[in-house]
Amino acid sequence: MGTTSPARRQVDVDVEMPVGSATLRSVLREVPTSVTVVTATAGGRPAGLTVGSFVSVSLDPPLIGIFVDEKSSSWPEMRNSDTFTVNVLAGDQQELCTRFATSGRDKFAGLPLRKSPLGNPLLPGIAAWIDCRVEEIRKLGDHHFALARVTDLDTTSAPTSIVFHRGTLHAIP
Q1: Cβ neighbours for 54, distance < 8 A, ≥ 6 positions apart
Q2: Angstrom distances, CA of residue 108 to CA of 42, 97, 104, 105
Q3: What's the predicted TM-score (pTM) here?
Q4: How far is CA 118 from CA 32, 54, 121, 147, in A?
Q5: For the chain, how big is the Rg over CA atoms in Å?
Q6: Are 63 and 135 in contact (CB under 8 A)?
Q7: CA nearest 148: which of 41, 57, 43?
Q8: CB of 149 within 8 A of CB of 133?
Q9: Residue 37 pairs with which residues in a beta bridge?
Q10: In whole numbers, what is the pLDDT of the chain averaged over residues?
Q11: What is the four-CA torsion angle of 103, 108, 109, 110, rounded to 10 degrees?
């Protein structure tokens, strides 16, 4: 026979408490998030953007997801690409994070690039990369969610990577 723990309380599911975006942001800033630059080849040219919402979705099959702000000026050109590459930034790459988060400039200017097996730009000095084929893209709230199948990946010799926590970039071992 099941018993109810005294620590549990009954919650009325019909009562919905409104959560404002400022409150949500304030609480979620306590959760460290990865910092990546997602790159693609769009119209024969390299394209990229900083993504702070990257998630492992499944190990079998190997699936990852990225969330891109609907206001991104780089996403429209990348959205139609069948593939993208997640570049996991190393601990000393705050400048690359800022470069790819800024609109209105040639984000790849002066960077020595290699190509991933799928032909997307690999940024220099990254901690790891993940090549992906897009499975599905959905609009969720104020973001686009791209679900992708991992086709290839590797780590590098970078000693640290970056996370975003409490409004600041931090290098982690």
Answers
A1: 33, 34, 36, 64, 65, 66, 67, 86
A2: 13, 12, 12, 9
A3: 0.85
A4: 30, 19, 9, 17
A5: 19
A6: yes
A7: 57
A8: yes
A9: 50, 87
A10: 89
A11: 140
Q: What is the pLDDT of residue 10?
A: 57
Please tell me the distance from the alpha carbon of residue 56 to that of residue 33, in angstroms, as a whole number.
12
CA distance 124 to 115: 11
Residue 28 φ/ψ, nearest 5 degrees: -70, -20
Residue 89 is classified by DSSP as P
**Residue count (the chain):** 173
Q: Give the E-state strand segments of the chain in sequence order.
A: 33-34, 36-42, 45-51, 54-58, 63-69, 83-88, 114-115, 121-122, 128-140, 143-155, 161-165, 168-172
Report pLDDT for 5.
Answer: 46
- The residue among 18, 56, 57, 3 whose CA lies nearest residue 34 is 56
Q: Which of 64, 32, 44, 45 minimizes the C-alpha distance to 130?
A: 64
- Provide the pLDDT for residue 157: 85
Residues (pLDDT < 50) of the chain are 1, 3-5
Predicted local distance difference test score (pLDDT) of residue 115: 97
Amino acid found at 12: D
Check: CB of residue 27 under 8 Å from CB of residue 41: no
